[in-house]
Write a structure and sequence with these properties.
Layout: E1 7-18, E2 22-29, E3 32-39, H1 40-46, E4 53-58
Antiparallel strand pairs: 1-2, 1-4, 2-3
Length: 68
């Protein structure tokens, strides 16, 4: 895969919850959970499954940094 987005987080799918039209896909990235909302059709087309390796790809014009 080649993509222009620089923020690519590789992880493992831990949960997929389908709703009426949108699915929430949870990805464990080094112990942190990233949740993506994508269409049910995208889940089906990509054949996503729990335990599968996948990437969270973040493409945004603004990325904020926060501290405690």
């Amino acid at each position: 895969m080649k993509i222009s987005a620089r923020n690519q987080l590789k992880g493992t799918i831990t949960e997929i919850v389908k709703g009426a039209t949108t699915a929430h896909v949870k990805l464990d990235v080094g112990g942190a959970i990233v949740t993506s909302a994508i269409t049910n059709a995208a889940v089906d087309e990509l054949k996503l499954a729990v335990g599968q390796q996948a990437y969270a790809v973040v493409k945004a014009s603004d990325v904020m940094i926060a501290i405690d």
